[in-house]
Amino acid sequence: QAALLLVPAAAVAAALETGADEPVHTVRRSRMSGGQLVATELLHIPAASVPGLTAIDAPSGAARARAVLR
């Protein structure tokens, strides 16, 4: 699980209703069950909604992710 701070593609910026030049955190996660991959997630979070979040601070686990996304 990793978080990156990127300038979003135009489609992502439009979906998030942000400017094309506004930074967005991109989080990629793999969900496992019984050792099997059951889902992959790609989250785009406007950086302005989580000020101060860095790749080092990126959430790991569902509980921390929910806390960041509140």
What share of residues is helical?
A: 10-25%
Profile the largest sheet: 3 strands, antiparallel
Strand residues, percent: 35-45%
Distance between the termini: 19 Å
Envelope shape: elongated
Order of helices and strands: EHEEH
- The beta-strand count equals 3
Indicate the mean pLDDT: 75
**Spatial arrangement of strands, main beta sheet:** 1-2-3
Helical segment count: 2
Report low-confidence residues grouped into runs of 5 or more.
none
Instruction: Give the radius of gyration.
Output: 13 Å
The class by helix and strand makeup works out as alpha+beta
Mind explaining what this structure looks like?
The chain has about 70 residues and is α+β, with helices and mostly antiparallel strands. It contains two helices and three strands, in the order βαββα. It has helices spanning about 10-15, 60-70, and strands spanning about 1-5, 25-35, 35-45.
What's the gist of this structure?
With 70 residues, the protein is of the alpha+beta class. It has helices at 10-16, 62-69, and strands spanning 2-6, 24-33, 36-46.
Architecture blueprint of SSEs:
Blueprint: E1 2-6, H1 10-16, E2 24-33, E3 36-46, H2 62-69
Features:
70 residues, 3-stranded antiparallel beta sheet, 37% strand, elongated
